[in-house]
Amino acid sequence: MAEMLNVALPKGRLGDKVYKMFALAGFECPEMLEDSRKLVFENPEKQVRFFSVKPSDVAVYVERGAADIGVCGKDILLEYEPDVYELLDLKTGKCRMAVATRALFRDDPASTLVVATKFSHIAARYYASLGRDIDIVHLNGSIELAPILGLSDVIVDIVETGTTLRENDLHEIETIAPISARLIANKASYAFKKDLILRVQEAFREQVAEK
To answer: In total, how many domains does the chain have?
Structure first.
């Protein structure tokens, strides 16, 4: 039986884009295009098996070896620091990790800065690099509310267009890191299924170069 490449695909728009890249690379799976509730799709002829997972879980499946390769945002890699190989920047899903606050806020370096975020590790490392004393308020949604209601001084969050910030009278004051989708690989799989993984990596590299 032919060796299969197990791929963790993020659900949603990014997953749709990435599947098209796999199809162009010769790893198509017609089952993926059918309207079904299936979670695992395979095409033995093309040696590929896809499964759709929550975007934030892709790195877990890859790190633990349930998937050989996957695609996830750089924000996930920065926040959780999974032990995987980052093979390629796909130059899609572009946004940035940024600090934002109310227009009238003025930082007092003598006091502890209160930071609301769902990216606690990114925020902690960033402010540690600045030598800034902070208090992190970990939230899972509607981060923009925190400074409006006085729960925090600033927020650290993903910003794409900035529209949500502007609509809530917040503005960006610092960029921490650019974010985009990355192709990642399990370290053991990269050794044992190197030919298949390199085929994907090189095909993706060509597609990114053509954009």
So the answer is: 2
Q: DSSP for 181-211?
A: EEEEE-HHHHHHTHHHHHHHHHHHHHHHHH-
Query: What is the pTM for the complete model shown?
Result: 0.92
Q: How far apart are CA 38 and CA 32, in angstroms?
A: 9
What is the mean pLDDT of the segment spanning 172-182? 97
Query: Is 132 in the same domain as 88?
Result: no
Virtual torsion, Cα 143, 146, 152, 157, nearest 10 deg: 20
Shared domain check, 173 and 191: no
Range list of β-strands (E), 44-129:
48-53, 69-73, 85-89, 95-102, 113-117
Structural domain range at position 33: 5-93+180-210
